Amino acid sequence: MNPLPVRMVVAAALIDPDGRILLAERPAGKHLAGTWEFPGGKVEPGETPEAALIRELREELGIETEASCLAPATFASHGYDHFHLVLMLYVCRKWQGTPHGHDGQRLRWERVNDLFAIDMPPADRPLIGTLAALI
Ligand code: 9L3
Ligand code: MG
User: Which Enzyme Commission numbers does its entry carry (predicted)?
Assistant: First the structure.
């Protein structure tokens, strides 16, 4: 039996000066549409995880950050039917620009303890506890 392909995904907990964290709604038509995720996306072949996250934050939210502002926080894996997702979460407190959903996706800022009650993708959920302990 062949192992499932692994999909490497990076995401950011963007934390504002009040300690709130940005969530982005997954757009209609995409896998897990309507759930609220830590923004990010797939690592492309030949990319470092940090470069992928910087690119995704630029493409999805229109903000600029740099590798020195991305602190690795935690990771989790989740098995889907056709692939195995490995999700790496970085904490980011410094960026340029104001996040807005480039594809029309809605955004919300929430306190870490309120994340447990939000409909997040299954790979994101197990990250909340570690994130809460870290920040
Ligand atoms: N995903 C899960 N949690 C996240 C992100 C950014 C992504 N915080 C999952 C959803 C998709 C896959 O990773 O199955 C790839 O994400 P995208 O490229 O569709 O954003
Ligand atoms: Mg994405």
Answer: 3.6.1.55
Does residue 56's CB lie within 6 angstroms of at least one atom of ligand 1? Answer: no
| 31 C-beta closer than 6 A to ligand 1 | yes
pTM of the full structure: 0.95
- DSSP secondary structure letters along 48-98: -HHHHHHHHHHHHH--B--GGGEEEEEEEEEE-SS-EEEEEEEEE---BS-
**Was 75 annotated as part of a binding site?**
no
Nearest ligand to residue 12 Cα: 1
Ligand 1 neighbourhood includes 60 CB (under 6 angstroms): no
Tens of pLDDT, residue by residue over 31-45, are 999 999 999 999 999
CATH superfamily of 6-134: Nucleoside Triphosphate Pyrophosphohydrolase (3.90.79.10)
ipTM for the assembly: 0.95
Instruction: Enumerate the domain spans of the chain.
Output: 6-134
